[in-house]
Amino acid sequence: MTPLWPPIASHYAAHVDALIWWYTLVVVLLTAPVFILIAVYALRYRRGRVADRRLKTNSSILIETSWSVIPFLITVAFFVYAAMLFFGLHNAPANAMTIDVEGKQWMWKFEHPEGQRELNDLHVPAGVPIKLVMTSQDVIHSFYLPALRIKQDVLPGRYTSLWFKADRPGRYRLMCSEFCGTDHSLMGGSIYVMQPGDYARWLRTAGLDASLAVRGASLFRALGCSGCHTGQTGSAAPDLAGLYGRPVPLSDGRVVAADDQYIHDKILTPNRDVPAGYPAAMPTYAHQVSEDQILELTAYVKSLESANGGTRP
Residue 215: helix, strand or coil by DSSP? Predict the structure, then answer.
């Protein structure tokens, strides 16, 4: 039997439920008197009933003002609380474990930092912040975890992210909540929230591929990228070591952050935002690399450390 309300699997989900129930209570308290008085006056002043229908001129400004101001202030308080929950959902802690997610008609693909891959099932440790970095290979999808009360659209050619910390071990449903084609209703799976010890054992027994960064390093060399991005003075392209997360001055005077989206766009449309001091000479790899391979290349760039912070892997 399908429950009427999804279970609560995180502290965040409890806050969302509290917001819903308290807001529902306030709406009922504010609207119930209106409907009750409509019924009372409809009966009291119905046609044929003797009633005092003389116009009364006395009124209370205080009551009328309170009826407008108090609900307004309560609504603003709910808005502020809901906004805090929303923005907090997109600001992951620095120690969050990153899992890459790719939507595709009609499945979910997950990649763990250690190299484990999953289809439609996601295993995570309880009590550990998890950051999901998501993209789509084809159309718009929407990643939805009812038990965690989180949902995020997954877009082709763009990266979106959110984070969560599941507190209650168990198996919970995940699904796509954006119509994405014929088999949209079948695009789902499960998230397994495990005790940290159980999760560690799962990592050891799950199929292990080379990590994203290692596969990205091989692809980086195979595509010939290492021929230009050498890091040497006078090279035709900027050094990528320590690039991720840093501000990048562009030739048009703007400054952008070298995040996942920036690296993605430089691979597919390299000459749109050219770094200052370099020619617009990089070839495009659109239609040559898949979204999976872009994730691998991005992971490799992330792993590169600057000369002051370490060495390349």
Answer: helix
Residue 234 phi, psi dihedral angles, 5° rounding: 85, 5
Q: What percent of the chain has pLDDT over 70?
A: 91
List beta partners, residue 51: none
CA-CA distance, 93 to 47, in Å (whole number)? Answer: 66
Contact by Cβ (8 Å): 127, 165: yes
Residues 169-188 have pLDDT tens digits of 999 999 999 998 998 988 98
pTM above 0.85, yes or no: no
- Strand 188-194 relative to strand 170-176: parallel, antiparallel, unpaired? antiparallel
> What's the farthest any 2 CA atoms get from each other in the chain?
98
Cβ neighbours, 10 Å, residue 123: 19
Quote the CA–CA distance of 279 and 275 in Å, as a whole number: 8
> How far, in Å, CA of 184 to CA of 182, rounded?
6
The closest of 19, 4, 16, 13 to 167, measured between CA atoms, is 13
Alpha helices in 45-176 (DSSP H): 61-89
d(CA 243, CA 297): 13
Angle 93-95-98 from CA coordinates, rounded to 5°: 90
Helices (H), the chain: 11-44, 61-89, 196-205, 212-222, 260-268, 291-303
Question: Is-cis flag, bond preceding 163, omega within 30?
Answer: no
Beta strand 160-164 with 255-257 is unpaired
Q: In what order do the strands lie in the sheet with 160-164?
A: 117-119, 107-111, 97-104, 130-136, 160-164
Confidence of residue 312 (pLDDT cuts 50, 70, 90): very low
- C-alpha to C-alpha distance for 146 and 65, rounded to whole angstroms: 40
